[in-house]
Design brief:
447 residues; binds protoporphyrin IX containing FE; 3-stranded antiparallel sheet; 19 helices; Cytochrome p450; 12% strand
Length: 447
């Protein structure tokens, strides 16, 4: 069995200030010095195990997934706000609901959602003020939220309740991050009523969803949206999902589906805005597609655009680490792991590992155009792997391609920002991404 290199609790404490701000450089230094897998003692007597090894990732997420559960961060801390839905549930409860919900995300069902998604994207992009720098991260946040909202509630009038729901989701997340990063203030968060206040807001979010479901049930018309698919799904004995469970699942789809997509879109658009030549190539690609609009076949016709999105998620994976806890003592790639060990798989580091990627820190727009998926499947995991892999993978892939296409067709993008700053929270966010959108129509009239 391997004796793993170790980072002491003392070293972690000495670096506490910078870890609080941005933990990624600290992790990178440790990986570069200690190798692809190391142990770390987190003050408070938590033993964690960090890895950027493809073999360890494969074993923990796929081959030996039964020995691991999600960490407390998701199953308890996050679950107290958004309930026990797919992302936060474990064991049989998770398995039963994954089986029930999975069909709603199959390609044949997504096909019926493409029109709804496209309309939602077009509506959100109408908010762009041309020729003026704006924070695209904020815009993409609204866009991704509306796409999930309209895919669920296509027939309801939802703008106002969704604005409130989005605000609550964001407020809850801010509180969760404070609880995570300042655990020593937990007594104060509890005593001062801050957590109670957020839990009350979370209840208000549930009431909003409950009312929308009531409205849907009162209206007999079929909608063929995600909510209809969830309302029709059945347990093995033919019964339907209880209302509370349905609301948990809806809250999870909002939480898991909007911020990740907004992050990936913002990073992608930044890289595109930096390169005028790339934009012209993308413009040619999207304007020479079949004229039938955006169908399921569309992705095959836009390899360069897809490659740009994949490359942005390689450099800045929204789920920049995946966490698990060992359920019992076991062995992974020659390493003995004790029950209760927290495992942190760094996708950020694996996606930039110099053994697997040429010029790992550079954005190379064409990188994925020339590679067969099987050549990178073992070291590229933007959507995770194994049975807990993202259920919204295809949904997000179509949504992102549609949004970028829509922008490229109508605008040229530019930015005055030389670099992009990151903000690693629960997901890997950019700080503001200021872009300017110049309408293409004006360009051709001016010419
Ligand atoms: C670029 C966008 C997205 C990225 C990068 C992403 C990434 C991920 C990753 C890495 C996981 C696995 C986490 C783990 O194993 O611990 C996950 C799970 C999940 N994602 Fe996504 N996601 C995206 C978009 C979406 C969308 C659009 C939806 C829904 C509309 C969604 C719903 C979910 C759900 C429900 C889970 C939990 C699945 C389960 O445990 O059974 N995601 N996502």
């Amino acid at each position: 069995m391997k004796d793993l290199p170790h980072v002491s609790a003392f070293k972690v404490l000495r670096n506490a200030g910078r870890i609080l701000k941005n933990p990624l450089p600290f992790h990178q230094e440790n990986f570069d010095k200690l190798g692809d897998t190391f142990r770390i003692s987190i003050p408070g007597d938590v033993q964690a195990f960090f890895s950027r090894s493809p073999e360890v990732v494969k074993q923990i997420l796929q081959k030996k997934h039964r020995y691991y559960s999600k960490s407390k961060l998701q199953t308890k801390d996050l679950a107290k706000y958004i309930g026990k839905g797919l992302l936060t549930a474990e064991g049989n409860h998770w398995r039963t609901h994954r089986k029930m919900i999975q069909p709603a995300f199959h390609l044949k069902n997504l096909k019926t959602l493409l029109g709804i998604m496209h309309k939602a994207i077009q509506e959100e992009l109408q908010r762009i003020t041309p020729n003026k720098e704006l924070d695209v991260f904020e815009l993409m946040g609204d866009l991704a939220f509306q796409v999930v909202a309209k895919s669920l509630f296509s027939s309801n009038d939802i703008r106002e309740p969704m604005a409130r729901l989005k605000q609550i989701t964001e407020d809850n997340q801010k509180m969760l991050i404070r609880e995570m990063r300042q655990p020593y203030f937990k007594w104060w968060f509890n005593g001062s009523g801050k957590i109670r206040n957020e839990l009350n807001k979370a209840q208000a979010a549930r009431d909003i969803l409950d009312k929308l479901i009531e409205e849907r049930l009162a209206n007999d018309q079929k909608s063929t949206d995600l909510l209809d698919m969830l309302l029709e799904s059945e347990y093995e004995d033919g019964s339907k999902m209880p209302r509370k469970q349905l609301i948990d699942e809806l809250l999870i789809l909002f939480a898991a589906g909007h911020e990740t997509t907004a992050n990936a879109l913002s990073f992608t658009l930044y890289f595109i805005a930096k390169d005028a030549n790339l934009q012209e190539r993308l413009y040619k690609e999207v304007t020479s597609m079949d004229a039938q609009g955006f169908g399921m076949e569309a992705l095959k016709q836009i390899p360069l655009l897809q490659s740009c999105i994949n490359e942005a998620m390689r450099l800045y994976p929204p789920a920049y680490f995946i966490d698990r806890t060992a359920l019992e003592d076991n062995e992974v790639a020659g390493i003995q792991l004790k029950k209760g060990t927290v495992v942190l798989l760094s996708m950020y580091e694996l996606h930039r590992h110099k053994d697997f990627w040429d010029k790992p820190d550079s954005f190379i727009a064409d990188r994925f155009v020339h590679m067969e998926p099987k050549t990178y499947a073992g070291h590229y995991f933007p959507f995770g792997a194994g049975p807990r892999m993202c259920i919204g993978n295809a949904f997000a892939t179509y949504e992102m391609a549609m949004a970028v296409m829509e922008l490229i067709k109508n605008y040229t993008l530019s930015t005055s920002m030389d670099t992009i700053e990151i903000n690693p929270m629960i997901s890997l966010k950019p700080k503001a991404v200021r872009l300017r959108f110049t309408p293409r129509k004006n360009l051709s009239t001016d010419a």
